[in-house]
Each structure stands twice: as C-alpha cells, then as structure tokens.
Specification:
390 residues, mainly alpha
Length: 390
Amino acid sequence: MNTAQLHKPGRLEVVDALRGFAVMAILLLHNVEHFIFSVYPTSSPEWLSVIDKGVFNAAFTLFGGKAYAIFSLLFGFTFYIQCENQRREGRDFGYRFLWRLCGLALFATLNAAFFPGGDVLMLYAIVGIILFFVRNLSDKVILVLAILFTLQPMEWYHYIMSLVDASYQLPDYAVGPMYDKVGEVTRAGNFLDFIWCNVTLGQKASFMWAVGAGRTLQTVGLFLIGLWLGRKQLFVQSEKNTKIWVKVLIISAILFAPLYTLRAEIMQGSAIVQSTVGTVFDMWHKLAFTFVLVSSFVLLYQSEKFRDRVANLRFYGRMSLTNYVSQSIIGMLIYMPYGLYLAPKCGYAVSLLIGVVIFLVQVQFCKLWFKHHKHGPLEELWHKWTWIGR
C-alpha cells in the first residue's frame, strides 16, 4: 500500500463491519433485558431456567459494557474521518460537527421515546462536544487526555475524599426512584404517558446513571481513543498495523484477568469502595476485554474467509443509526403493553433468539436499501441536517 493510499481517509470495510458487530451485540443485549423492561416469566421448567441463566451470563460477559465501548470508539473515529475529509478541502469541520450533534440529540429523543430509561445517544450528543475543543490538538495530547479520562479521575477523587473524611457521602443522583417511575409508567399501558416519561424522566435517569457509573468520562476517553486511532491510521491494513494489533491483543488479554480478579476482590469492600474503586476496576476490566474483541476482529478481518462470513455486518454497520433506533421501536412492539406484550412469556434464551431474528430481518432490509440508496434512511436525514445551508 503506497503512502497516498495510507493517508487518504475514507470508508473502511473493517470499521463498517466492526460497527455492525457492536450494534448487533447491543441489539442482542437489549432483547435479553427486554429493552430495559424487566418483566419475565414467573416460572419456567428447570432445564429452561438453566439455559436462561447461561444465556444471561454469556451475553453480558461477552458484550455487557463492551459493545457500547466499541460503538463509542468508532464515534470518535468517524469524527476523525469527517474532520480530515474537510481539512483536505481547506475547511474546518468543527462548527458543522456541533450542528451535527444537535441532530444527534433529536435522534436520541426519537429513540428514547420507545426505549424506557433513556438513551446513550443523548450522552454522545452532550459529551461529544469535547471533540470540538480537541480537534486541533496534537496526537500526543489527544492520547494523554484519552488516558486521563479512562483512568476515571472523578471516582478516585470520591475515594480519596472518603479516606480524608469518614463522613464523606457520594452524590445521590436519585437514579433508582427515577427508573422505578419509568417502569411504573411503562407497565401502566398509556402510550402517550410512556413516550413523554421516556423522553423526559427517562433521559434524565439515563444521564444521571452514566454520571454515577463513570460512563461520562469513559465515553469521552473512548471518543478520544477513536480519534487517535484514526489519526494513526490503525484501521488501515498494513504489516506494521498488524504487529500493533497483535501487541494490543496480547497486552489486553494479559491485563483482563488480573483486572477482573481485582474488581471481584474490591467488590467485597465497603459500599463507598465498591462505588468508587470498584467502578474504576469494573470499567478497566471491561475496557481490556473491549480491546481483546476489537483487536481480534481487526486481525481476523484480514482473512478472506472471515470477511466473507461477516459480510452482512458491513451492511448493518453502514446503517447503524437506522438499525439502532428501529430496534427500539421493534422491541417496544414485541415486549411491551403497547404491542404484543410478550415480555411475560419470554425468558432470556427465547428473547435472545428473537434478537437474532430481528438482526437477520434488519440485515436483509439493509441489503435491499443499499441497492438503491447511498445512505440509510436516518443516515441520509443526518447527512442532510449536517450540511444544511451549504
């Protein structure tokens, strides 16, 4: 690969497929948890209960906190692509990006209307502003900031304050009561109340949960890592990059086990230790496994056989926004009182199978759509929103 090819930003198949993998994993997790609608069968045969437990543990071990992290990484990477494409034309993408985030907030509101408990896209729309301010900083500064944010400084601050002052209390964001209210409205079955509660109280609960769980700073860190990966062209296939991804895989795999073990030990401590240092190590061990997944995927994607087997993920990833929002609408119609209300009849295993079916249907829709269109439906709207007035 020559230098011109290496440094010209554009669509990379591996990134589309990786994004598709992340959105697919999010879809499967959302089905297992009934799109945050915790209603399940009250009794099941013993054999099915065993399977359900295995499905739940496997799904969250593999994808819980990791699919979202991959999605966040690629958000930062996409920002790099857009900035670099505009820079090559002599333009600054920064202010367009701020306008683009306003559009994302609208899509977040649309998705949240059908998804009890708020939506991560609103978090992206809010904390994504940091990318505007760092867009002209050096690669080294970007990496340092990324590391700083992923170290979870606020959690360490709370922990240190608890050591200094034994009476120190963590901020109470009242997330539990907010989610309880959202669940109550969802079960009540009034569709208009459901939508209004989701886009107001649900969104607030989701954001406050992210603050309390360390997700806000980690999301910023992941955005910056994605931006840095883009600048370093690490998703472009080359012999040098292959060696780097092999090192990432080895280091991440080695770090995962001790971080997981330390997290388990820390969770035996006091409540404030669990909520501070425990949160840090929970984030770190999930981040290590996230890079195991990402590096493994990138390395495997160099194999033609693997590329052929995951080809559908490319289509799915190119339409990630449409698929992400539509899965919430489909989930609401399947599991909640406003549709088929199958939640009381579907355990974890059956719900996972439903998620697989939804994924396959969405993939076929993506293939048909791309025969006649360049962008997905919501992607096209977002594109036009971004470049309005130009």
